[in-house]
Amino acid sequence: MLDAFLTPPTTPPHVLVVGDLIVDRYIWGTSDRLSPEAPVPVVKVQKETYSLGGAGNVADNLIALGARVSLCGVVGADEPRGWLLNKLAQLNISTAGVLSDPNRPTSLKSRVMVGKQQVLRIDCESQDPLSLELEQAILNLASSLLQTADALVLSDYNKGVLSVSLCQALITLANKAKKPILCDPKGVDYSKYSHASLITPNKKEAQVATRLEITDDASLQQALEHFKTHQHIATPLITLSEQGMAFLDHHQLVKIPTIAREVYDVSGAGDSVIAALAFCLALGYDLHQACLFANASGAVVVGKVGSARASYAEVLEFLQRHYHQGQKILDRHALRPLLQASRPKRVVFTNGCFDLLHRGHVHYLQEAKKLGDILVVGLNSDSSVRSLKGTSRPIHDQASRAFILAGLECVDFVVIFEEQTPLEIIKALEPDILVKGGDYQGQEVVGGDLVEQVVLIDFVKGNSTTDIIHKIQGMACKTSSNKNF
């Protein structure tokens, strides 16, 4: 299903990251009392740890995935600068693009942690714009590094590095070189990212930038269309926290749901997502595949504490565990990108009520699976079954029917639909082969004009749900008559 990611790339992609460099400092401790001076906890410090934040964290995550990284940014002339440069050297990231400005501090975010809970954050930073000379030096360095890069990431934390002029100059250069440009935006005015390939604001940031309240799919699409129309973003994307992410594919809304996982710390999750997107796009994967990979990367990171990194092996293990081996029952929005990512494997689709699963059903599904690589079963919802077969049906509710179908080895995915016909679900999933029962011989098959091939499979004689129900009813009547006698 996700074979594209099973083998790490033999030639690592080269990604250029330009943006705000931050040092994340964590002060770990315990607390069992409040201060007598103010209603705040007294924290007894046990240890301190440091990690890369901002553009540095994007670079760190790219290294963990196996990319080659060039980094451009600005630091101060202070103690955090020394730690940052040493850390970059340890990761084999060249520091040639990291310039020092003695008139500004190295951005330092200090977080006080009690157990796994953050109780306080202290920021030491400057948001002043760079001098014209320093900005030109950054542009010169980035322009040179961009020549050999496969993708450009602009990691904006609103600390003064990524001005409108620098962003637009880099975007222009990258577009001319036909390199994908990914922007992690900040602020209200997104014009600085105009003509980028991809932006990745979260829902809150997108609402602020568009002045639209995102409450449903319609408003979500409206916000994405705003970025496409006003900022000329080739593919606008909005991250939706526990709901995954959404983007526009030729003005069609595509939602990539995430997988529920215990969240310990969301710090740096956005950095991991944009790093994973850049990694995949630099390798030539399409956006559907890149989003699946990025969702998994973000899920790995939020399961850790601190601005963490997600390695290629961790992301692959997560994908295999949650997509390849499980999670068979999905809605159409979740299933569509998975099927897109599986191409060129052939997708077989069939549908039915599958009320009382019997030998005939299993034989039919096994034969259907032999026709391709992935078998998707569209399952009529309870309301859909009632409208087709009467108020006495279904015998089993849709959750039970889906669970039983998902237990069959030949079935890869189950998707429940409310409509009386599977037309809309076929349009959404775009299967290659449509399978129906042999009783459709000589009849028009709904959705048949949307697939490459329609295949009719004969039923096993003497096996039907109706016959089973009649048999059970007959046995019940006979038992009742014997009792009355």
TrEMBL record:
Residues 14-308 form the Carbohydrate kinase PfkB domain. GO terms for biological process: ADP-L-glycero-beta-D-manno-heptose biosynthetic process; lipopolysaccharide core region biosynthetic process. Transmembrane segments: none annotated. InterPro entries: Bifunc_HldE, Carboh/pur_kinase_PfkB_CS, Cyt_trans-like, PfkB_dom, RfaE_dom_I, RfaE_dom_II, Ribokinase-like, Rossmann-like_a/b/a_fold. GO terms for molecular function: ATP binding; heptose 7-phosphate kinase activity; heptose-1-phosphate adenylyltransferase activity; phosphotransferase activity, alcohol group as acceptor. The active site is at 271. Its EC number is 2.7.1.167, 2.7.7.70. It comes from the Bacteria. Signal peptide: none annotated. It catalyses: D-glycero-beta-D-manno-heptose 1-phosphate + ATP + H(+) = ADP-D-glycero-beta-D-manno-heptose + diphosphate; D-glycero-beta-D-manno-heptose 7-phosphate + ATP = D-glycero-beta-D-manno-heptose 1,7-bisphosphate + ADP + H(+). ATP binds at residues 202-205. Pfam families: CTP_transf_like, PfkB. GO terms for cellular component: cytosol. Residues 349-485 are annotated as: Cytidylyltransferase. Catalyzes the ADP transfer from ATP to D-glycero-beta-D-manno-heptose 1-phosphate, yielding ADP-D-glycero-beta-D-manno-heptose. Homodimer. This is Bifunctional protein HldE.
